[in-house]
Amino acid sequence: MIAPAELQNIAIEIAREAGALARERRAEGVSIAATKSGIADIVTEADREVEALIRDRLRVARPEDGFLGEESAPEPGVSGVTWVVDPIDGTVNYAYGIPSYAVSIAAVSGEPDPRSWRALAGAVFNPAIGEMFHAARGEGAWLDGKRISVNPEPSEAGALLATGFGYDPATHAADLARVARVMPLARDLRRIGAASLDLAFVAAGRLDGYFERGLHPWDHAAGALLVVEAGGRVGGPDGVPGRGLTVASGPALFDRLLAAASEPAEPGLSNG
Ligand code: IPD
Ligand code: CA
Ligand code: CA
Ligand code: CA
């Protein structure tokens, strides 16, 4: 089996090229190509073009691996490794010209299902700022080659937290109730608009914690590895990030944040 560090290098190289394309398209002007499940769930031509570029590059570099991306049909592989790709995470920011969006590329082994996969390597690249977050399983997490780590403990004044709101308006009332339950732990709350950056920022100690319901595998695959490799915890009521609740933080805050963010009826704490 190929070493995680080698997969990481492939993810970094392709994320950089994909990010440059996203940035170039952004500079030319972006229009919304379609809405998917609702008004916030948009896709631009650039989302599709960037995913196609990543897919092409992976086909050449790793022809036997599988592929799971947001904008195209999944493709099983034969090597046991699958690439989980969000070509542009934060498409609403991208479409509005807010420089908080990212290319997220992860390599996982086993079934391409967050409940059982092992994340091996990941890269989260924000091309607007030029920041590359990257991690390799068992080896650590870095921002542009410098080691990063989670905040071991939030300040006594409270935690700087981030969240997101799902695209389904039917869940907004529950999301707001969750925010109300969590606020007693918070110094302040951010809605950055790109789950991969929320997770990368937890890994880098820029945020103390993050919680959101309804993430897809490509939203969290690379970011969750960053958090774990930076010494943090990621999980949910079922113990893994997923379509239910995802919570990420340093170890000291995790259980309290998970308990506050969980639905009162959801099962209790898990190992994350
Ligand atoms: C979305 C962003 C957003 C989060 C949504 C995601 P997309 O991804 O990460 O911050 O709140 O849950 O779906 O659609 O911009 O790739
Ligand atoms: Ca999307
Ligand atoms: Ca996404
Ligand atoms: Ca996306």
Automatic annotation (TrEMBL):
* Protein name from the UniProt record: Inositol-1-monophosphatase
Q: Name one GO molecular function term.
A: inositol monophosphate 1-phosphatase activity
Please name the InterPro entries in this protein's record.
IMPase, Inositol_monoP_metal-BS, Inositol_monophosphatase-like, Inositol_monophosphatase_CS
Q: Name one GO biological process term.
A: phosphatidylinositol phosphate biosynthetic process
Q: Which domain of life is it from?
A: Bacteria
Q: Which UniProt keywords apply?
A: Hydrolase, Magnesium, Metal-binding
EC numbers listed for it are 3.1.3.25
Recorded catalytic activity of this chain's protein: a myo-inositol phosphate + H2O = myo-inositol + phosphate
Question: Has the keyword Hydrolase been applied to this entry?
Answer: yes
Family, similarity comment:
Belongs to the inositol monophosphatase superfamily.
Which cofactor is essential here?
Mg(2+)
Q: Which residues bind Mg(2+)?
A: 70, 86, 88-89, 219
Q: What stretch or stretches form a coiled coil here?
A: none
